[in-house]
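Bench notes, bay 3.
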Amino acid sequence: MIIFCIYGAASGIFESEESFYAYLAGLGFVAPFVFTLIQAGQVLLPPLPGPICCVAGILCFGPVGGFICSYIGTCIGSIAAFYLARRLGQGFVRRVTSPKVYDKYIGWLEKGDKFTIFFLIAVAVPMAPDDFLCYVAGLTRMSLKKAILIILLFKPPTLILYSLVTSGILERFF
């Protein structure tokens, strides 16, 4: 996965919706599986643009198929981020994120139960730093079960919104 992400970044696959779409379209029947893995990878590797991946999924697989692949991949990546942070600790989280983002949100570790509410809201709201906060959640005393429930239950609104807005724009202008 990491090698693919490096290859994708170096070859320009992730530069635009069009280049990403062209790449996926060339994969044939394995495209949904590859896309789902890419969605998981974009959570784990912050430089990959999540919204571009969501839009490309909708373009390739339609609103429903794009949503399903995005949901599965995003949940896998979010749960993996939580687990990796839990197992590898704060030093790992610091290495996989930018210092600016790390410094901005790491203070939530000291907020206790308030972090759980903040995390829940961030997972449900578009454009929130929920990918990074999955790492932060792994550094708290939050149980894996609670993190999984929050991710599975509160991630769909964001993805549905991306799907609806994108499909609406596509229908209106194309």
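Next record in the batch:
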Amino acid sequence: MHACAWRSDEGPATIGSRFEAVGITNSEETRRIYRQMLFTAPGCENYLSGAILDPETLYQKSDDGVLFPELLKSRGILPGVKPHLKIYTLPGTNGDTVMQVRHVVASLLSFLALFTFVLITI
């Protein structure tokens, strides 16, 4: 029975600090291997209906060459993504800020159109 969404959206810095705390090198390949271990755990599809991914994860592949979003979908787990959007201070203002969204979301949506995806905007 599908029970919940799975938060696996830790960015490289956050997951890296966890790795380094236990003596594991923080590299893209190490993060890929870790995520692959999670996404291929036997029976996880019996308990998960969705997985929130970090943008880095969208382009990573399993050892078999399958993109992680496709791997999740093949197991009946709906992949979602939480974009990391940066806030910038507007020059010439008294600290007014803006979030640079348009180009990030536009490029992300064009990629997500290849899959059935949920865009997480929390």
